[in-house]
Amino acid sequence: MKKLITVIIIGILIGMMGYVYAIQDTFEIEFKTFNNKKDEKFDLYILLPEDYIKFAMNEANLNLEYDGANTIKKNTIPGITVKKENVQNEIYQENGIQYIQIRLDKENEIYSFDLLEKYPKMDIKFRIKNLQKDYIVHIDNFEIVKGRCEIEYDYAKDTIKQPDRKVMPSGIIALIIILIAILIVAGIARIKGRK
After folding, report:
1. What percent of the chain lies above the pLDDT cut of 70?
2. DSSP letters for 101-170
């Protein structure tokens, strides 16, 4: 009986915690670099605007005061999963908007970060920084496909793009559907012919 009560209590607690996190639907940003012929070392930062951080706090029903980088360093905010030591004290500013800089770690040649799906703007930016360059990447017109926003950065040219997508022309798709329908009808006719 005690085990059953313990399981029920744990289930309720997990359910309550799950409520806070369940509202946090995210999509993933994947950032890949290419054409770095000299294999120059650089740091890649994601720049989160103040609005995004306040939005994440609001979505998680957190009653916190915004305090720049300390907001993320001193608090756990669902929807902003980062290593606290990667949050930079330096604030980046552009057009009167403050951005918190978070250094991203590379894993399997890809930098990735999860963003809240419900956030209405794409005003998140990236910053590539080393002794040779300090380049800001704007992604406001990029598409999210199947829960992922892929970014390819040409290091030598300082250009970004989304990967080319192979899309079948609608005529070929229609032709394939017609061929499948013909094969099904032929299969049915052949089965009826045997009877």
Report:
1. 82
2. EEEPPEETTEEEEEEETT------EEEEESSS-EEEEE-TT---BTTEEEEEEETTTTEEEPPP-----H
Cα 168 to chain center, whole Å?
26
Q: How far apart are CA 7 and CA 145, in angstroms?
A: 39
Would the pTM count as exceeding 0.85? Answer: no
Among candidates 3, 2, 91, 108, which has minimal Cα distance to 45? 91
Query: Phi and psi dihedrals of 175, rounded to 5?
Result: -65, -40
Looking at the DSSP bridge assignments, the partners of residue 152 are 32, 161
pLDDT tens-digit map of 2-51: 554 554 555 554 555 444 444 458 888 888 988 888 888 999 999 999 99
Band of residue 165 on the pLDDT scale cut at 50, 70, 90: low
Please give the helix or strand (H or E) that residue 14 lies within, else none.
helix 2-22
Sheet holding 97-103, edge to edge: 87-94, 97-103, 43-49, 125-129, 134-138
Residue 27 near residue 147 (C-beta atoms within 8 A): yes
